[in-house]
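Could you help me review a protein record that somebody else here produced? Do not assume that whoever made the record got everything right. The record follows directly below this note.
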Amino acid sequence: MVLFAVVLALLGALFLALGAQRQGSAVKADTGGLGLNSNGFLRLLRNPRWLLGLLLLGLGLLSNMMALITAPLTVVQPIGAIALVITTVVNSKDQGITLNRPTVVAISSCVTGSAVFVLLAVGATVENHHVSSAEELTIVLLLALAIALFGGLAVVFRRRLNAFVFILGAGVLFGFVAVLTRIIGTQLLDPNGLFLLNVQWYSILAIAAAGGLGSWFVQNAYSAGPPDLVIAGLTVIDPMVGIAIGITILGELAPHVPPVMGIGMAAAALVAIVGVVALSRHHPEVTSRRNEAARELRGSSGPGQ
């Protein structure tokens, strides 16, 4: 079963990578690096490349879910980081981009830091199979605050938000979604036989709102940066948020965890996040867009202006 899960996780990473690259290139071609608006999104719904990317992303998520059901998190989660490497290679070939050294170092930091963080976290946590109503409501209220915060930023500063802010918001929101999805799955399988009657309506509403806003952020991140940055943000930030919620709210911290393990988790998280930040600043596609914007600004403010 573990071997089957590894194959599923590898397929999931491949599908996620190819799906992100297809959608990213479609959004970039449609927006030309500008922000995505509602009309642009409606055009994407008729774009075969974007729809193919959506299908591949769906297959990737399904493969990962099946892998998590059949094998421990320690086996599946680090494999997901391979999606970042695949996305980077595929996108660089598709766009004719030569990767610079800072980008390679940043990607290595993302993959290494996130994998080490997850491996340490699994040894430091125990799953809470009996989430109380108060704990679930606390998570939903915190998610509502996150939606208000990132939604407010999107409304007020939409034209000035960069790719990192979009993907940070998406990673945080999808981290909450993953936790609530796990809680609802446990409620559906509760031996009391009530199934859907166990599920709280506010959790479903919170998942729908966070999933919608998170998906919108992902599409805007595609228009403002490379698809490998999107995958980097999701594979780094999403699991970290989920694990943090489990430890702080659901009481999933294992007993007698040595302080050195906590220090190791913090160090691994820092390495991964620094990698995402560096990728958002030094990726060739990002620097190319920044240089082009600077040239346009100098041209518009030239002599006689």
